[in-house]
């Protein structure tokens, strides 16, 4: 029996669900708000864990191609103190494959492959009934047997199953970037190394992470009210730069340069859903990834979204007769796993951007040794 399944959102979670369904011979429709795959910058690099994102790619038949594209050397991590002293310098073994990095754009293209994505289809709401009725921003409507909300933090599908909305964590990030770092900023290339460098002070930090082709994303992390930059126009590059640098007075010059040489600044406040967010099962509608379990961005969100998608696809393909029972059982599994990671990442954010930088270092020591 072929169910009509719609996936809302062509992020890592939605695309993995669709790609595994496709791999297993089940038709699927992907509805995406963006006008096309390149209509906005894809964002920074992602590390995919062996037992999570990599496992999901394996289920999609894409493990070999991932190995060719990914950057195992990107697992390198260096921690500095604000004076610029190197506290830790982890480098992966040549055969280390636990968490290699891949650019989001490369991952998206890998997953897209033969999928038929309907671009420019913004969903405004989903109404459960006999299956689920999808309403689009352009006024159209369409019914499916199952609608999967993989539409991220501010999901428009979520209200069909849960009244909960994300809350601000008290930590915000400001993102900037450096291009052609090896030629234009060789001193900073050296500082960052092959992977990432992180510097933690009191209630703030700076993280710089290599993407492919010499591109580096730099994140200033601050424990501050959501309106901390009231009166400051972050699109005024000079004003943004000097306001940000003022927060890092007394920090070593090379560390300040990671921010000071940035050419555009974008605020990305960190919001989360409650740890262990669940809902009363609703026939015809479910959620995965950030839409279901938005958590602090500490390297788990895309991994979980992908494994959610891969496992749902496998369950649907394995037992196509009772779609509702399959979704119910899968939700229980997803909630349990996501709850564990939400607790870990929530505690992690408290330690990384908090009053005592020693707790940040201790967290890295625990993660690196596990
Ligand atoms: C700075 C940063 C670094 C991170 N690093 C990592 C990392 O290294 N590893 C990791 O695992 N995670 C990381 N994360 C978390 C990760 O980015 C997210 O958890 C992940 O992208 C969630 O995937 P998703 O598919 O659930 O949702 P999203 O990636 O948010 O995708 C949602 C999709 O739905 C579309 N959409 C939204 N609304 C609608 C609508 N109404 N109609 C139709 N389409 C819609 C969007 O355009 C988008 O394409 C990081 C996050 C941040 C902010």
Strand content: 15-25%
**N-to-C span:** 44 Å
Mean pLDDT over the residues = 96
Spatial ordering of strands, largest sheet: 5-4-13-14-15-12-16
Structural class label: alpha/beta
Number of E strands: 17
Query: Bound small molecules, which ones?
Result: flavin-adenine dinucleotide
Largest sheet: 7 strands, mixed
Descriptive overview:
There is one protein chain. Helix content is 35%, strand content 24%. It is of the alpha/beta class. Strands 5-4-13-14-15-12-16 form a 7-stranded mixed beta sheet, with helices on both faces. A 5-stranded parallel beta sheet has the order 7-2-1-11-17, with helices on one face. Strands 8-9-10 form a 3-stranded antiparallel beta sheet, with no helix packed on it. A hairpin with a 5-residue loop joins strand 14 (204-210) and strand 15. Helix 1 runs parallel beside helix 4, helix 1 runs parallel beside helix 10 (301-318) and helix 2 runs parallel beside helix 10 (301-318). The structure holds flavin-adenine dinucleotide. Residues 8-14, 31-34, 44, 46-47, 122-123, 150-152, 156, 268, 289-291, 297, 299-303, 305 line the site of flavin-adenine dinucleotide.
Tag the structure with descriptive keywords.
5-stranded parallel sheet; globular; single chain; 7-stranded mixed sheet; binds flavin-adenine dinucleotide; 17 strands
């Amino acid at each position: 029996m072929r169910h009509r399944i719609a996936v809302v959102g062509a992020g890592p979670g939605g695309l993995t669900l669709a790609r595994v369904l496709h791999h297993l011979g089940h038709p699927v429709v992907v509805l995406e708000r963006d006008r096309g795959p390149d209509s906005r910058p894809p964002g920074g690099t992602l590390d995919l864990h062996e037992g999570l994102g990599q496992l999901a790619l394996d289920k999609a038949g894409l493990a070999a191609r991932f190995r060719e594209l990914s950057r195992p050397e990107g697992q390198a991590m260096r921690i500095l103190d604000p004076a610029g002293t190197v506290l830790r310098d982890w480098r992966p073994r040549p055969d280390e494959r636990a968490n290699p990095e891949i650019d989001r754009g490369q991952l998206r293209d890998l997953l897209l492959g033969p999928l038929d994505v309907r671009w420019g289809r913004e969903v405004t709401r989903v109404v459960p009934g006999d299956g689920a009725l999808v309403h689009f921003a352009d006024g159209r409507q369409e019914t499916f047997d199952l609608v999967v909300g993989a539409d991220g933090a501010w999901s428009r599908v979520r209200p069909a199953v849960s009244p909960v909305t994300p809350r601000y964590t008290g930590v915000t990030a400001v993102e900037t970037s450096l291009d052609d770092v090896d030629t234009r900023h060789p001193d900073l290339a050296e500082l960052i190394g092959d992977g990432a460098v992180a510097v933690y002070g009191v209630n703030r930090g700076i993280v710089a992470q290599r993407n492919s082709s010499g591109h580096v994303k730099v994140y200033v992390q601050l424990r501050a009210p959501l309106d901390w930059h009231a009166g400051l126009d972050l699109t005024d590059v000079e004003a943004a730069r000097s306001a940000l640098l003022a927060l890092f007075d007394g920090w070593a010059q090379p560390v300040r340069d990671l921010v000071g040489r940035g050419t555009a600044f974008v605020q990305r406040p960190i919001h989360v859903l409650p740890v262990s967010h669940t809902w009363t099962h609703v026939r015809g509608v479910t959620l995965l990834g950030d839409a279901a379990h938005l958590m602090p961005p500490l390297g788990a969100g895309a991994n979980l979204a992908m494994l959610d998608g891969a496992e749902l696809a496998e369950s649907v393909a394995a037992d196509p007769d009772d779609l509702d029972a399959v979704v119910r059982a899968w939700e229980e599994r997803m909630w349990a796993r996501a709850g564990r990671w939400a607790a870990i990442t929530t505690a992690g954010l408290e330690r990384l951007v908090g009053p005592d930088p020693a707790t940040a270092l201790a967290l890295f020591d625990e993660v690196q040794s596990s």
